[in-house]
Amino acid sequence: MEPVADDRQRIDKWLWHARVVRARSAAAALAACGHVRVNGQRIDAASRAVKPGDVVTVALDRTVRVMKVLGFAERRGGAEAARLLYEDLSAPPPEPAAAAAGRDAGSGRPTKRDRRQLDHLRWYDDAG
Questions:
Q1: 43 and 85 share one domain
Q2: Can you tell me the distance from the alpha carbon of 51 to that of 7, in angstroms, rounded to the nearest whole number?
């Protein structure tokens, strides 16, 4: 992927090149609906330009992605090239509920023995 000599790029084009969305029209729709913020300010036009160092916040699929713009691209490339365009500042995803409950992920339903042990613990908690 060849870097662009310009110091600015349209937000819809940058989101598409960075592979945040699958289509440039989807990026334009996100910007028009107000789901994109640049440096904390909501934008309402896909033509808003971003420059290196800007922080872009995008609300997607019940998650929020925060990215710092590092560069631009002339053409849309692969995923490895797209990751060079930004630094991900998003919070790490929460751990699954199964891990929080103390069970191993993928262990399936509790066995009859597990249920009896849980019932035994619950009975002693209620009794005493």
A1: yes
A2: 6
